UniProtKB/TrEMBL annotation:
Protein name, entry field: SpoIIE family protein phosphatase
InterPro entries: Bact_Sigma-Reg (IPR052016), CheY-like_superfamily (IPR011006), PPM-type-like_dom_sf (IPR036457), PPM-type_phosphatase-like_dom (IPR001932), Sig_transdc_resp-reg_receiver (IPR001789)
Keywords: Hydrolase, Phosphoprotein
Keyword Phosphoprotein among UniProt keywords: yes
Length: 422
């Protein structure tokens, strides 16, 4: 005889029938409690819910048992039985909530066993669903906790990334620098920086790390750390790599490969000499190339180069360009091309050229409407309200109205001025 874990409750005021059914259930291995009334049955259920209830019961009694609720379990199925020969009694019992019906007397116990088998399968499926529901709820709770933790981490990461960015609208020797970054996710894989190397030279760069989000943002930390180290080393006289844009790109390439992040980036590095007004630069596959606006005319700087972080021995060419005293240089990451409404890449490049040219002219002519004196730009990330040519371009592209950008967007402007302060 096999032993079953299920508990059976038999309710019948007819002692002989009750004994017959109980004995039969015991013989096939079930735990059985038998009572003679609904009152005794309720006491028994209160002490322990049965898996199946057998009962010679009225419709109201069946309904009562079928609706007994337990916060952890569904109602126990009720198998009604009776001496009735009237089909309407069977229908009434089923409508009251009975799961099945057996006609007394129990001449063939295999009928009972077959019903138990069928009901048990239903119970097994219900319990399985309950277990899956509990597991799903637990998983959802863990997922929500994980998302909350991730959001907290991202907020902390955003604060760190903001602190890494330079001061907006900053004056360097002979230069005015300004920028904007709009991440497509919480953290940005785009990064930029500018600072004075010495009294003669200033450096600026813009970088676009592959991918988006936290993993790409980690690489921007590496860039900031490396540029700080190169500047510190130069001031201590230990290395002069920061004076050479191609060597700087090589250094970043080497350190990025050593981290094994599996990330690569594009980058433009420019060094401005304020005594000769010369721009020396190198390109690490950056696209689009910076736009130079002089005397109302815009053009792309020439330059090509290999991406950073993919090859052991990339080559980076050095370019020199003597600039007029007054110029405007626009640097973008390729996310800007995603929001330009043009048919193809060539048209987008031309559109960007015109937009940069127009923004500079508009600002120079003083037609830039000061929409807000509140420079609430979160250190350049998010909405741009500043009184700058960047704002002109942002308004032209309606960037502040786009809530889900397809890619990070970074814009850096470097303008030549006569003022040598800074």
């Amino acid at each position: 005889m096999s032993i079953h874990a299920e508990r059976m409750l038999v309710i019948d005021k007819d002692e002989s029938c009750r004994q017959y059914l109980s004995s039969g259930l015991l013989r096939i291995g079930y735990y059985v409690v038998s009572v003679s009334s609904i009152k005794e049955a309720l006491v028994s259920i209160a002490n322990g819910r049965p898996d199946i209830i057998f009962g010679d019961l009225t419709a109201d009694e069946i309904s009562l048992l079928s609706t007994l609720r337990d916060p952890d379990f569904p109602p126990s199925p009720v198998i009604a039985f009776s001496h009735t020969e009237d089909a309407s009694d069977v229908v009434t019992a089923l409508r009251a909530g009975a799961s099945d019906f057996i006609i007394k007397p129990f001449n063939d116990f295999s009928v009972v066993q077959e019903i138990i088998k069928r009901i048990s399968e239903k119970i097994r499926l219900v319990k399985l669903n309950q277990r899956y529901s509990i597991e799903l709820e637990d998983a959802n709770r863990e997922l929500k906790a994980g998302i909350s933790e991730l959001k907290a981490d991202q907020k902390a990461g955003l604060k760190i990334q903001m602190k890494m960015l330079p001061e907006r609208e900053k004056k360097l020797k002979g230069l005015n620098c300004d920028y904007m970054i709009k991440p497509s996710l919480y953290l940005s894989g785009d990064f930029l920086d500018f600072f004075k190397i010495d009294s003669q030279r200033s450096i600026f760069y813009i970088a676009d790390v592959s991918g988006h989000g936290a993993s790409s943002a980690f690489v921007t930390v590496l860039l900031k750390n490396l540029s700080n180290r190169l500047l510190r080393n130069f001031k201590r006289g230990s290395t002069d790599e920061i004076l050479y844009p191609d060597r700087m790109l090589h250094r970043i390439n080497r350190e990025l490969l050593e981290t094994e992040f599996g990330k690569h980036l594009t980058m433009f590095v420019g060094i401005h000499d304020n005594t000769t007004n010369t721009l020396t630069y190198s390109v690490g596959a950056h696209f689009p190339m910076p736009i130079l606006v002089t005397d109302g005319h815009a053009e792309y700087l020439e330059g090509t180069g290999m991406p950073i972080g993919l090859f052991e021995a990339p080559t980076f060419r050095v370019y020199d360009r003597v600039l007029p005293k007054k110029f405007d240089l626009w640097l973008f990451t390729d996310g800007i091309l995603e929001v330009l409404d043009a048919k193809n890449l060539a048209e987008k490049e031309q559109m960007l050229l015109k937009l940069a040219e127009r923004s500079v002219i508009s600002t120079d002519n003083g037609t830039d409407n000061d929409a807000s004196s509140d420079s609430d730009v979160n250190a350049g990330v998010g909405n741009v309200n500043g009184n700058s040519s960047i704002r002109e371009l942002v308004e032209a592209l309606k960037l502040n109205e786009i809530h889900e950008l397809p890619d990070d967007i970074a814009i850096l402007t470097v303008s030549g001025v006569n003022d040598q302060d800074g």
